[in-house]
Design goal:
Blueprint (H helix, E strand, L loop, with lengths): L4 H4 L8 E3 L9 E3 L17 H52 L22 E4 H4 L3 H4 L13 E5 L19 E4 L4 E4 L4
Antiparallel strand pairs: 1-2, 3-4, 4-5, 5-6
Amino acid sequence: MPVPRSEIFRVPRHSSNRIVSGSPAMGERQAAMPCELQGCGACGQGFTLIEMVIAVAMLATLAAIAIPIYQSYLDQARNTAAAADISVLQLKIQVYVEEEGKLPDSLSDLKWDQPDPWGHPYQYLNFADAGPGWKGKARKDRFLVPLNSTYDLYSNGKDGQSKPPLTVKVSKDDILRANDGAFIGLASMF
């Protein structure tokens, strides 16, 4: 018995073969796209505006979290590098004193021209060469007592600014030598 023509083109609801109307050979069966929404215009057409907005929002959130963390790691690395440089300079000054019998007049006597990690020159103040008013120029703690007895050696830090007392806001990010070399580190930690 012949199959009625209406049954030939009848396709089950979840079949992988669909009849595509408007195809060159009407009635030919074509393999369905993996998407169940074939024919609606949504398959293979890219991302919707909502999807793009959500993706951009997720990336912005991740960046907002990651960038400050990365920046703090960079700051810590620069602080550590400056403290290491000051330790090296302190050793070079000790060698200079043993060889010459006096403190160097400037860091150029040590043949040191390397800037700090922020690109600023290291600051050195020899109290013997500073004259009678050296206490006014010396770095001071919160009680306004000089940090060192022979010389000051420090970096102006990230902001490139500094004032003698450590309690001033611009001095908090300085990397310094204190207690005649017993402490080398961030001024806010002293």
